[in-house]
Amino acid sequence: MKKHHILPLFLGLFTLQTAFAQQELLLHQQSDLWHANAVNPAFFPSEKRFVIGGPSFGLDAAHSGDITYNDLLREQGDRTVLDVGNAINKLEPNNDVYFDQRFEIASAGVRLGSMFLQAGYAVRVNTAINYPKALAELFWYGNGPFVGQTLEIGPAINTANWNELYLGLGKRFGENLTIGARAKFLSGVGAVQSDENRRKISALTSNDIYQLSLTTDYAFHSSSIVSSIDTAGLGFDLSLNEIKNDFAANGGWAFDLGLQLKAGDRLTLSASVLDLGGSIAWKKNANYYRSQGTYAYNGIGIPGTDILNGTTDSLDFDAALDSLNDVLNFQKTDSEFTTELPMRIYVGGSFKLTERWVLGAVLHHFNSERRKATSVGASVHWSPLKWLTVGGMYSINDRSAANIGLSIVAKPGPLQLFILSDNALNAVTPYGSAAVNFRFGGAVVF
Amino acid sequence: MLIKSWSRYLLPALLGAGLFSACDKSLNDVELAERTPEYAFPLFSTEIGLKDLMFTILNDTLGGDTIVVNPDNTMTLYYSGDVAEKPATDIFEFFKFPDAPIPVPDTFFRFPFNVPDSVYIHRADVLTGLMNVIINNQLPHSIVGTFSIPQMSKNGQMFSYDFTIPAGQFLISPQYDLSGYLLLSDSNALEFRYEAYDPSGNRIVLPETAPGIPGMGILLNGFTLSYVQGYWGYSEYPLTLDTIDIDINQTDLKGNVRVKNPKVTMTVSNSWGFPTRGVVKHLSFIGQDGKDYKLESSVFFGDSIDFAYPSLAAGEVGQTKYTSVTLDENNSNIAEIFNAQPVKLIYEVAGISNATKDPNIVGFLTDKSTIALRMSVELLLEGSVQDFGSEQILDLNFGEYSELDSTDIESVEFKVVTENSSPIGAKLQMYFQDENGIALDSLFIGEPQPILQAPSVDANGIAIGSKRTETFVPMDVERFDRVRQSKNILMRTFFTTADGGLVPVKLLATQSAAVRMGLKVKLRVGGE
User: Fold this and answer.
1) How many beta-carbon pairs under 8 angstroms link A with B?
2) Structural domain of residue A434, as residue ranges?
């Protein structure tokens, strides 16, 4: 086990904020890319029979508001300085951080007549954090500036890291309709899931003589990530597990469905539903941590009669400081729990204007327990060379109405190499962006 | 064509390299930016009730002192001297018979008994006593006779003893229990009588056994009286000499204490059945300046006062009468004396019986008659003080605060909050000392600060509500460095009552003062 102090955990929270959102609108519009079947199981490169998918990495992350990586980190001489204070000014009373990462390790596909099979292995991380500005302020500025104020500082954290082993089947019906389905076995690695009904941590510094009180009704589930909360020292440490579980210890299933319809020579329509019914039952190292109660620290209380009687003749702050331990007093109980995978829906269409130009439109809807979001985009793709296609997209999502996406797809010989982003400016300047979206990868197709 | 072919692979490679470099912002050497977080936390709190305070003052010193919470919650301090209790037997000694037999040299003999000067006993009731009659017959013939004490009777029967003694014999009568016998006399003497006859019936006088030793005598043992009645003439005797410490003023610090309407009360309980006059031989306070301040009062007539007593004529035998004399600002100079903050009261009182020398006074004493005198100083906790000082030294341990790297500390600020429902305010100065008692620094720069303010008082001198006072004590890191290394605090407090100590205030048992302290520490962390 490794021990981590709360400080790096907190900093980690902020660094997560520099990551971004997994809508992958442009990927859905590249139906000839092997890795596009990640967003629609009905996609299979046309006129190809056999595919070996190489690694592909996709990241979609965002922080609410305008906070960016550069707000946190700045260069000062030859040093990189973390300045949370600069970022705090941009925080809203409540802030959300999303982080969705998909790493396709390996995949393969084969076409058998009107049918095709696909299989693969991927690692995914999905995180949603909601935290109040007060938490960051309390950490960075201390409680001194907040005397007399009750600060609600309880964050909600839902994060899960899992492996996916999937097997899919697609079939073309007639010349125009292709339907695909994919079953995914999910192997949970680690998770933390806040109890939505218990996320109260209130901190008050009295304006009398700064008496401290902390009222908690806070709880979360954890599998493998947090193994204990040690309050033996001043402050408290989280004891974190190395994220490693038996492959089948925390199991679950999810399903993808997709279709592609050629409506004439130029128009193609497509739709998919991903991670349908997806859930993971966490059984291995699964615990429930709960802190409930009110902790009050009023300093040393010296009865007046003790002073008068000479029973107390000293002021000893050493012992008093020790009593700050065990403030949160988390109680740990064994408890299995289940996390739901966010479901995603794509609906798109493309119109082949010429041999080199294709116009398209796509809608994406994301639905998770903590977040629902819809985005739409209009795209244009141009193939100046037979092996090279570049694309552009204008899209609107819940964060911005001015996202310009770019994609480059190169197909030298049997290779398929691509890099794309629904917000290209952010992708190449991630440190100055509040949201980042990109994906790249490669495959060999025959 | 070659260039075109290579470009298929070069372009994606360049794009990938560019993306990687964009992400290559190493977090390995990230440092926290300089910041000045401020942490606030409480240090201590205490609350002292006036009632507890006054009880403690008393318990620390004189066990006989009491504090009384009056029905209106005012408090009265009583500093009392010892109770000087004088049983009558300590002053007056009656009928002290010799251990040897009392000779009866003749057939009629008056034995003068021992009584105090100027006292004439008319009646005495025997409580205890054993008596033998001793007869030595040296004659060559037997004798018969009767021994009697005409003044001693029981149930109306005079005491008498009949005897017969053979020739040359020695006789000791049976032992007689004299309890319950009544002795009557008007001359402070007892009469013994005997009649003895020879065989021929001739009355005789018993010859001496040896020269100067008569042939008859009586032996008395354990003789005590339960009641004595008679005439008491003028007689002076000591009652008490005592000292009362008044510790409320016994501090080394200077102040100006004014107590409103202090009182000295002399209480006498008396069951002696004759008039007694108390004579104040000495009554004075010793001031803080060591000077003697005589307490003079119009309640005394020439430094004397007659104590009430149970009257024989009124049938008050066995009763106790009380006399209470209070010396206050209306009848004495006590208020003036208390301005000098006295620390002791010294008094000496004597008694005089029948001070008027009335020849007709008939009094009494019983075996339980006592006269008890108690002197007390009574201070209703009402008054005013100006800059009345006290000192206290507390050990101090800042614990982990003393080990903080001072380079991280930019400044600190103590906050002292007091809530005071008593009419006493206070200025405070704390001196932070090292283990050798050497002052390292002080809480306030310069003069003590008024951290405890008194609420206003009403027309009766009672505090109205509670007064909250907040005092902030900023301290730079250099001073705080010295303070947190200290091992002791010397607290000097100077009390002043409401309205600048100019009007008397009442201290109530329900009043208290709460003192709390918190600390803000501003750190400078991060950066180079």
Assistant:
1) 177
2) 2-445
